[in-house]
Amino acid sequence: MPLLKLLHFVGLLCWCGTLLYLPALVAAGTRRNDPLFYRDHAHLTRMVFNLIATPAALIAIGSGTALFLRDGIMAGWLIVKLSTVAGMVLCHALCGVLVLRVERSPELSVSIRCRFLGLVTATFITATLWLVLAKPF
Ligand code: HEM
Hints:
Blueprint: H1 3-28, H2 35-71, H3 76-104, H4 111-134
Helix pairs in contact: 1-2, 1-3, 1-4, 2-3, 3-4
C-alpha cells in the first residue's frame, strides 16, 4: 500500500476514534464529589484532545490534501467529502469547547450535549466513509 495512503488511514483511524471517545470521556468526568478525580480526569481529557485527537486530525487532513494534490482528483464525491470533513472539524472544535467548559465547571451537566455531539460526529464519519468508498458521483 502506498505510504501516503497508509499515513492517511493511520491519521483518520486515530482521529475518528478519539472524536467518538472524547464526548463519552467528557460526560464521564462530570458530577462527582471528588476534587482529585476532577483534576486527574480533566488532565486526561485534555491530553487525549491535545496529544492524540488534534495531531491525528492534522495528519489525516494533511495526507488527504497531499493525496488530492498528487493524484489530481477532481470528482464530485471529493468535493462533497470535503464538506463532511468540514463537519468533522466543527465537531472537533466543539469537543474542545466541551473539554474547556467541563474543566472550568466540572459540576456542569453536559451529558445531553455530549450524546448529541457523539451522534452528529458518528453521522459525519459515516457519511465521509460512504462517500469515499462508494464514490457515488
Ligand atoms: C481534508 C481532508 C481530506 C482530504 C483532502 C482527503 C482526500 C483523499 C483522497 C484524494 C483520497 C484518494 C482517493 C482515491 O485514491 O480514490 C482519499 C482516500 C481515502 N480517504 Fe480521505 N481525505 C480527507 C479526509 C478523510 C477523512 C476524515 C476520512 C474518514 C473519515 C477519509 C477517508 C478516506 C478513505 C477510507 C480513503 C480510501 C479510499 C479508497 O482507497 O478507495 N478521508 N482521501
